[in-house]
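Subject: mismatched residue count in predicted assembly?

I count 382 residues in my input, but I want to confirm that the predicted structure covers every chain. Input:
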Amino acid sequence: MLDWLSSWLRDVVAVILLAALVELLLPNERMQRYARLVTGLIILLVILTPLLRLVQGDFQRNLEAGYSEWSRQLENSQAKMPSLDEILRKAEVAAGSSQEQTVALARTQLEAGIAAAVEQETGAGVSGVDAAVVWDGKGGGVISSVVVTLAAENGSGKADSEEAGMNSTAIEEVSPVDIGVQAEQTAQKQQEPDAAPEQEALPAMGAVIDPAAEETGVPPELERRIRALVSSGWQIGAAGVQVRQEPSRNG
Amino acid sequence: MEMVQIAGIGLLAAILVLVLKEQKPIFAFLLAMFAGIFIFLLMVGKIEAVIGTMEQLAERSGIPSVYLKTILKMIGIAYIAEFAAQIIRDAGADGVAAKVEFAGKVLILVLAVPIINVIVETVVGLLPAGG
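Triage response: the counts match. Full output below for your records.
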């Protein structure tokens, strides 16, 4: 009992001494009032230690837990001001998303431009253009391939001529083929305006129509013209341009 | 004899500040600031000795280290706030100096919050027993 009392008294005396030292150390009176509050609280805590031990077993641990919790909270609230790294990371993400939007916008505009040009030049109804663009990530891009889908009611003479045109498969790699295969088809293509002169130029341009074109349902002549137009207007390799026919609704 | 040295540095700085103030007020301010920092750094070593004594006292008496940490943090905050506020006041920006002091006061009060928490918890725990 006496042991306990003496240790408690020693604690109290030491804390009061500390508080006196602190008061001396403090730079001016303005701070002293606040420091006095803290030292007063600490002295109170030390004097109350026996009572605290009685009421809540390990208040010491509570106090330390409270301190660590408190400093963690303070750190968290300070973290609300983002660091430079964080800002840069966010900026990168934002730039990436804006780049994506730019790419999408450029692509839609490109597709609209191709569709308008094809419709204007050939008079064929274009139902959709799908351009695949490879972006280099630095604001530039290369058009790798373009798929032009023609509207179903486009060529009047074609819809009934080709039964296979119902399934609009893409034209595969263009491979040289003898013109004789197309002989029957060209008869129908004559209905298209100025089809004949371009028919002559066909082998010269190297854009020889694949037999598979029959399955696309696109008149070879029209396809060749669209192909030439798109590849010359947008600097796309002729192999990268595909023309397909939308399945005709009346057929 | 350190006190004489420091008094000499202070006087010299004051005279130079008076001379410089006429020509270049900004350099007068810089000179005052560096003189202040110099004296402060000279005295930090002495404060260290006092703090060491306090630590020994706390250790010997078995005061929890949390208390001592709190007290030392408080002294540090008070010194830094006061020093910065005085330099700013030298530069003529009394308003900013008052804000710096205010920040120091707030931070000292923040240190007291966990202690207040424990005391309040104890009082709340006592209440049913007392009533």
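Residues 64-126 of chain B form one domain. Marking this ticket as 'not a bug'.
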